[in-house]
Queue: 3 jobs
Job 1
Amino acid sequence: MVGLIIKETVVHKVLVARATFPDIIDRLRGYFEVQDNPEDEVWSPEALSRALQGKAGLIATGSERIDEALLAAHPQLRAVCNMAVGYNNIDVQACTARGIVVTNTPDVLTETTADFGFALMMAAARRIAESEHYLRAGRWTKWRYDMFVGPDVHGATLGILGMGRIGQAIARRGAHGFGMKVIYHNRSRLPEATEAQCGARYVDKATLLREADHLVIVVPYSPSSHHAIGAAELAQMKRTATLTNIARGGVVDDAALAQALRDGRIAAAGLDVFEGEPHVHPHLLEVPNVVLTPHIASASVATRRAMANLAVDNLIAALGCGPDAGRPPTPVNPEVLKR
Ligand code: DGY
């Protein structure tokens, strides 16, 4: 009698830490046993660790801290796929040491995030939020020639700190759309051809601070970029300048910024990210000349879908499934894949 040999396939268990589009969860269910979080509870580290029991893969957002303690408790974990381009919530070195693949979502959010950064900069410069609050409060009783005057954006000097993909996309908007003079500072200078495409000129940090009419911060968070803009840097800026932060909380010293805004040390700011978010420094809430948004720079429907789909593509491939098995499209630590 010929025996029937059934090939055993292991169906991995995976965790999706925060709510996302239901059809994207369905895509994952085609490959894995999925635990998701449709109520979008924000789990404590202990609750996250409990949910991660027995899971080979995790789809995370910037809100989940993936550190050595969590990894040590979950030796079965094989892949952490962040639904964000930034990954300062993940201890990548610890993941690499354990052979865990880490992925992020670059490229798909570049233009959307640059649009938002530009909008926030314009709102700060042209006092859009401040004047809207004034109008809604019923305080607009007569028009005045100098109501809510602010600095121009077109033709001004745009300073960019951090010239990765998003910085370059903001530079292109400034140079080619608004006739701005664009200067930037970055860890390393870009190739000349890229500078020419962006219409941007490399300068040292002191020149950037001194010359920018509108400074946009797009540098990733790391211990070396912690408080890259603090009281000393703000003191070097023009009194008429604006500052926009769409990078990460912690790159700007929020307390020092609130003080500079209160003292009129700079004209205005636009902030989408905060130290310790969703907590916002109380002094920032008190000053009128700052536009505050809740970390939504990449939040267009198409881009949020693209980010979620890319995170799913990464997880499917990282766990050895699908057409790209073993080759996740956007790994942060590709060295793990070569082992
Ligand atoms: C990112 O992708 O890093 C955005 O800040 C959303 O977290």
Job 2
Amino acid sequence: MSDWTRRDFIKIGAATTGSAMLPGATNRLLAAEVPASSQPVAHTSGAAEVAGPRERLLMDFGWRFHLGNANNPEKDFGYGSRSEFSKTNDLFAPSQSDFDDSQWRALDLPHDWAVELPFVEDTELTRHGSKPLGRNYPETSVGWYRRVFQLPASDAGKRISLEFDGVFRNAMVALNGDFLGCNLSGYAPFSYDITDFVNFGGPNVLIVRVDATEQEGWFYEGAGIYRHVWLVKTAPLHVPQWGVQVTTSVRPSVAEVTVISQIANDHDDASPCQVETVILDPDGKAVARQTTSLDPINAHDEAPCRQKLSVPDAQLWSLDKPVLYRAVVTVSNAAGVSDRYEQSFGIRTIRFDANHGFFLNGEPVKLKGTCNHQDHAGLGSALPDRIQFYRIEKLKEMGSNAYRTSHNPPTPELLDACDRLGMLVMDETRMFSSSDEGLSQFSRLIRRDRNHPCVVIWSIGNEEPAQGTPRGANIAKAMKRLARRLDPTRLVTEAMNNSWGLGLSSVVDVQGFNYGKAEKIDAYHQKFPSQPSVGTEVASTVSTRGIYANDAELGYVSSYDLYAPPWATTAEDWWRTYDERPFLSGGFVWTGFDYRGEPTPYGWPCISSHFGLMDTCGFPKDNYYYYLAWWRDRPMLHLFPHWNWAGREGQPIHVWCYSNLERVELFLNNRSLGAQDVPHNGHLEWQVPYAPGVIEARAYKGGRVVLTERRETTGAPARIVLRPDRARISADGEDVSVVAVQVVDAQGRLVPYASNEIAFHIVGGTGSLNASRHGGGGRISDAEQPVGPPLGVLSACGNIIGVGNGDPSSHEADKSNIRRAFNGLCVVFVQATKQPGEVHLLARSSGLDEATVTIISQSATPRPAV
Ligand code: GAL
């Protein structure tokens, strides 16, 4: 393959039983469209509070935002021109309570300002998604966030803290002018105890100055407060953040659950206390209980409470039945209940075996994994929680059972989705380092994530230059020591792309292979037969959805499984290698979804990657079906390409089939072109002289046709079809319906080349439009012309929060209500407001019959928020 970019070659190396969820949690579970497990939970990261003095309030709503300037103090609200740090409570001019922020933009979190910026042609930016961030773009690299909130006078005496799930990056935080701290990492969570700085009974001004000048990766990373922010209130005697650790061991008829709760005493006197832990089963029934009296904890000190409980007839967490238990820890002193903290967990066993791969609950499970970055079409890196679930659902549908959080700590809700849907996770830190910063980031990752049953292994890094050196080994040793201390239940790996057997290879528990030929992997296994191994990164096959010829100018790669950069392989190559070797625990395909940046094999005008099995929207590419065939055991058949080849009559077209049935016969316009046996882990090919009409594949098992697939030569684009992933969402201000948009011909067949520009509007109020629920066509009357507000202005029940089409070379705006179809498809994201009602989405394009769909945003109690 030609036209590789330079970089491509320079690769180096919770206890009131049953009331565990917050008010509204049950309302958030929608009956009809998706299983309950597909909905985000009311609480994140498995930690929640039940009735008790603790409050955890979402702080996503009602922010103000303004770009600053990395070079010019005058344009950066004076930052850098005054002695900000000379007194510790005078940080940032916008911290003043009388600061006029009316010119700042009103927005809600999560927010990524990078996705809002235009695309820029600059080779330095290509890998990062071609957005103007960095030293050369000071005017778009710094963002200021301001949030004014009230705390009631009755909160005096409580401990108050702020928790940030992730800010990209280099965040400097001040409250009421007091310096709280700086957080460098764009991915690691951080928090501040703000009790000393708050105004009880008055307004509080929170300022976050975010400097995204520097990158941490070589891919799109976004910019801003792109994950949730929480305000947490507790009594002085409380469980600190991530203060409950649950580990389990399974005996034949009983599970031992060890709960270590950290108790912090922020009273000015020593306090005795009692800790009661109750284990709730998935139905909310208490199945174990233990109460422990602790010796008095010194003032402003902490003490652990270790409890061991037995759960009889435990239901194990598995991929098909991801059963979650809850530990509800109640802390009391003489005055009564002081804190109640809930921690979800799963009961399961995991094991990596050097010869037989990975085991879950004693059963071998081949890891059929994907690596993924965290951005999505239309949204950048600021994903509503529902989109995390959407992505994991898509991967599971394909047959994938494992996810690598390459190359950084994930959003907590990603792990919630994996816990609830049944997806194993390799959890990776960003900074391979034994520096204080590196260990701090890794420590925060482990302490936050160690109770998630989905997490089965820690990854300490990816393709680090020091991987094969003694220095690399030293760093790895320190990181592994930390991992063992914080979590004795999981092993450690690193994704190495060379130097296997050298440097940190001897330190990690599980050898990670990024790419690497079968011979090298076999030789390694022979030499180190007692070390388990896993394909931390495999494939990197490139393809563009719906494209069947390489086009360097437009930046498209053909979808046949033929193209991969020099270090990489086709899908078929790696999976055959791994499937044939039981000692390999499995592998993680680079990548499940396309992502912004790294447009290998091209550069500008390409702005996003081609590695995904799905495009940035989650529309499957043909390679997706290869995995569907060999990763799932239900019968399947996929035929490609499309059958619109006007102008190529009589010329040969490569026709491919993926199937896991025995034999496939191909027909062109009802004439058989012959049958072929399906090779295990392979595909079938025919060369077919093109004639318009119908190409059909029939797949047989035991001599009987089990499945058929057709591709028909379509007519011209005629109308739009709208298909929401869910037609009912929750009116909680957060939930999202992902609406797939198809351009079809007069007979309703997807037009595989359609690129019509489509405008989307939320029209009218509840019930104003007689719309067909699932995207029927037809023109609406003049009286019903769209009256939807422009994007960004609140409409009553729902808003368009982004659009996308998976075209890796599209420079159209994501934050828009207009998008072209790309090869017949595009997507629009509709987010609920907190007002229930009907959301009518209208799609209109010149020359096409328009379409409407109604999404019901049903009454829900939003999460408690400040
Ligand atoms: C790997 C790297 C990934 C991505 C991939 C593309 O070496 O770890 O982040 O760059 O190459 O093939």
Job 3
Amino acid sequence: MDAEAGSDARAPVRMEDIVSLCARRGFVFQSGEIYGGINGFWDYGPLGVELKNNLKAFWWQRVVRERGDVVGLDSAIITHPRTWEASGHVEHFTDPMVDCRACKRRFRADQLADAGPCPAREGTSEHDLTPPRQFNLMLRTQIGASEDASATAWLRAETCGSIFTDFRRLREVARQKVPFGIAQIGKAFRNEINPRNFTFRSREFEQAELEFFCHPDATGEWFERWRDERVRFHRDLGFGDDVLRVRPHDEKELAHYCRNAVDLEFRFPFGWQEIEGIHDRGTWDLERHGEYSGKDLSVTDEETKERFVPAVVETSVGMDRTALALLCNGYAEETLEGGETRTVLRLAPVVAPIKAAVLPLSKKLAEPAQRLAAELRRHWNVFYDESGNIGRRYRRQDEVGTPFCVTWDFDSESDQQVTVRERDGMTQERIPASRLAEWLRERLDGSTGHSTTRD
Ligand code: ATP
């Protein structure tokens, strides 16, 4: 087997390399490609769906399963339209939009720095802009056969709406007392004026949200706890200080009901951008839904007998943005000893789409190697590959972030041992085939990333 050695120098990542890897290996590509694509919509291929499912499972494990005080929900995407009136989305969920009279392109008024020159104006490169108008980002649809206004509904712009409308029932059925949380992962839709930066700003995307209900006097403490907990989550995905930061909102940015907020920002190739928002929302949500539904959403403290409307600390993270951050953080092109280059995706094992690849050294060894792969598939997503020389097969796995390659060679027949090669250090170890599953389990299950540092 090839001995490999690499240098650790990591060049800055370019977006075009990430987009190209994603298309080439089928992680993510444009939706409706054969018709020319549809702006702001993306399809996740075999590796992408594994990556995103692993990320969602890891979030669910941390936020719901490992705790006694958070329960889960999977609510309808279309909910009662009053939900969005109560939350203020129908009236206020808008971005300022301007049009260029010359080239007919449309921009967000607060993102004009990125608009570039106008291709349709001779003598000046500036756009001929209309005054800003407010544009509602909610995607509208019709329910039922009639098209009158009563049948208008909205695709949710964030997943949390139903958490508030279901609060009363969930508290009862889950037999939870405040403080406790409700979590949900699901699709959200926003008619973004300018979808861009690959999947970063899409029109259909997935959010993982937690609404944590507590006494209004306790939000400060819960806000800090959840902020720290969420930072820990991202650190465990491998995001070091150099790529992840906590940015507190200043007064002007805060919604009128919001008492405190921070963004967790990732350093993408196109700059520092939000991947998660953490907000102290006070009692706004349950008060508004109580008012619009006419239902009492307050609770009683059993000890003090105080009756109060619970306040909310929210954590809201985009799964697509975090998946993109994982790809950007993991991606590296390395020059190996001897001048050969490799592309490697250093993903934390917990999110890696393929956990191990089984590679027979020769096609003649296919049968025992396939048996080994079938055995490992009972536990993990395992890939079997017998085509091409072993070095090329390693490269194919490095590029998609597979932490371990297991090679069955001619000696394996007699000594019943396999060679396991590790992705990052490219070190190799000889292990009895009978111990392989246990060996992998020790290194894969629950295995998070070590924050890597990029220059
Ligand atoms: P931005 O300012 O970037 O538009 P936001 O502040 O409106 O984001 P939130 O409403 O706080 O975002 O949503 C929570 C999370 O949902 C964001 O941190 C992000 O990860 C994700 N998200 C929001 N809008 C989009 C989008 N258009 N495409 C992909 N993910 C998104």
